[in-house]
Amino acid sequence: MIQFGRMGVFVLERTAYTDTESMRYAIRPMTPADLQQVTNIEQDAFPEIWPSTKFDKELRNHLSRYLVAVDTKTKVNNPNSVQEIIPNKPWTKKIPIIRHLVPDIAPVIQTTDSLVGYVGLWFMIDEAHITSIAVRSTHRGYGIGELLLIASLELGAIQDTKMLTLETRISNVTAQNLYKKYGLSIVGKRKNYYSDNNEDAFIMSTGDTKTKEYKDFFDNLRQEHSKRWGVSSRYITE
């Protein structure tokens, strides 16, 4: 099921498998409140990156879009949500019983979404380019990376692109196999692309994703993902 909203598209897979459960991981756009968690995920997945990506700057870039994978069954504490319950004002000092029962600052810790992965894309004319895709090491093997790739292709579709491209380490065969599964093939190589060890990168790209053949191919892969991992919800802004 695809619902078009004022600010984006909500995608909920319609599956032929009626006994398929919901996937606990969902996709939504990244927000400023996510910056610390996304930075932590990047450091976990790519410890060689220094300095860390300035994700706040990326959010302001009109050419880029970032999506995050959320664990819908887990919340984490937001340390920035401390609220002042009894202000430290002169009039409060005249009521010692209140000051005794309630401290000046009573920490009210609110919770926020627990993020387990993210993907960043740049859009150039008719091409969507994945600049980074990462999943927490503790959450790999649960279909999250594939879900982020699915959402990237869906975002490319609503942005009216006809091609998805990316770079990947030559040694990262696992990632290459996932990308090949979704129709990306090796079209080139970038020498000494990765600064930590000067490893080369493969350039991988889809063909024309606007063709009926690719759309049918992609729909089948989404159905397979839902059958294996559960029906997922994805909110993708333009």
Report the biggest beta sheet as strand number plus sense, adding barrel if it closes: 7 strands, mixed
Looking at the structure, the CATH topology of the domain at 9-77 and 117-162 and 208-237 is Aminopeptidase
CATH class of the domain at 9-77 and 117-162 and 208-237: Alpha Beta
CATH architecture annotation name of the domain at 9-77 and 117-162 and 208-237:
3-Layer(aba) Sandwich
- Side by side, the strands of the main sheet go 3-4-5-6-7-9-8
The number of distinct β-strands equals 10
Describe the structure.
The protein has a domain at 9-77 and 117-162 and 208-237: Gcn5-related N-acetyltransferase (GNAT) (Aminopeptidase), CATH 3.40.630.30. The chain is globular. The strands form 2 sheets. Strands 3-4-5-6-7-9-8 form a 7-stranded mixed sheet. Strands 1-2-10 form a 3-stranded antiparallel sheet, covered by helices on one side. It contains 7 helices and 10 strands. It is α+β, with helices and mostly antiparallel strands and 238 residues long. A hairpin with a 4-residue loop joins strand 8 and strand 9 (199-205). It has helices at 35-45, 55-60, 90-93, 96-101, 144-158, 173-181, 212-229; strands spanning 2-4, 8-12, 25-29, 64-78, 110-124, 127-135, 163-169, 185-194, 199-205, 233-237. It starts with a strand and ends with a strand. 29% of the residues lie in helices and 34% in strands.
